[in-house]
Every structure is written in structure tokens, then in C-alpha cells.
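Severity: low
Component: inverse-folding endpoint
Summary: output formatting inconsistent between runs
Steps to reproduce: submit the following C-alpha cells with default settings.
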């Protein structure tokens, strides 16, 4: 009976390590996305602009949400680029999806803000939305903290048990 209990205990430690490891990794990924996109979002208000054309636009529906999926093309120095980014941290956009669908319907001319150092990076709505970045930052910190504390606690209990 003691061996069986020991094997079950080790299994729970592995499950806890996996769970808290995934939480920590998710926090790292979210922190990376915020750190990567925030400087670009802040700089994008000063980027040069060109006219572009929306080539595709549709609303993607899931059980819990609706999201605008779109593509647009634009030319910089004779090179044609394609993007689908409306704004930085775009999943947390304010506003009505149907309204955006009308604004960005296929064939519509749009102003494209592009990164002069890498014209393949472009956005239609420049700037950093405080709510989006703050929310993502808080989630990243929360996941990092919970993951780190959970891993620490699990390792501590594993050591005690040995």
C-alpha cells in the first residue's frame, strides 16, 4: 500500500510541475508579446504612411466572440506588401466588430502606417492602447507569479517528501 501511495504522490507532483510550468511559460510569452509590441505601437504614430487597399474582410465567429479577419495590400518603394494587422495588441480592440467590418470592407482604400526599417510591419490604427497593453501586462505578471510560486511550492514539497 505504501508503494502505491508513493507512486500516486509522484504523479501529482508531475501534474503540478506541468501545470505551473505551463502557467509560467504562458506568462513569459505574454510578457514577450507586450515587450515586443509596445515600442512599435508607440513609434507607429510617427511612421510614414501610404495608401493601401483592403483585399479581404470577414467576421470570424466562435462560441464566445466575433473577430474581424482582414487582409490589405500596400506598396512601399515599388514593393507590394500584405498585412492583416489593424492595431497593435489587436485582440483587445475597442469598438464594434460589425462597424469595423463596414469601415474595412473589401475594396476600401485605407491609410497604412508602415515601419520604415521594416515595411512588412504595418498597421491601420497606430498607437498604443493603454487598456490593451495594461491588461496584457497584468495577465503576464499574474501568470508569471502564479507559475513561479506554484513551481517553487511544488519543488519545496518534493524535497520535504524525500
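Observed output (run 2 of 3):
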Amino acid at each position: 500500500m505504501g508503494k502505491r501511495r508513493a507512486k500516486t504522490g509522484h504523479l501529482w507532483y508531475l501534474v503540478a510541475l506541468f501545470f505551473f510550468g505551463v502557467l509560467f511559460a504562458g506568462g513569459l510569452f505574454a510578457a514577450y508579446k507586450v515587450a515586443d509590441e509596445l515600442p512599435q505601437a508607440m513609434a507607429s504614430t510617427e511612421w510614414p504612411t501610404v495608401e493601401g487597399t483592403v483585399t479581404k474582410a470577414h467576421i470570424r465567429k466562435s462560441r464566445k466572440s466575433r473577430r474581424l479577419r482582414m487582409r490589405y495590400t500596400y506598396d512601399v518603394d515599388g514593393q507590394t506588401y500584405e498585412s492583416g494587422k489593424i492595431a497593435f495588441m489587436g485582440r483587445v480592440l475597442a469598438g464594434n466588430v460589425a462597424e469595423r467590418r463596414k469601415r474595412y470592407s473589401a475594396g476600401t482604400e485605407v491609410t497604412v502606417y508602415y515601419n520604415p526599417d521594416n515595411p512588412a510591419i504595418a498597421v491601420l490604427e497606430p498607437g498604443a492602447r493603454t487598456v490593451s497593453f495594461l491588461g496584457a501586462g497584468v495577465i503576464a505578471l499574474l501568470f508569471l507569479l502564479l507559475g513561479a510560486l506554484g513551481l517553487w511550492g511544488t519543488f519545496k514539497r518534493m524535497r520535504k517528501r524525500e
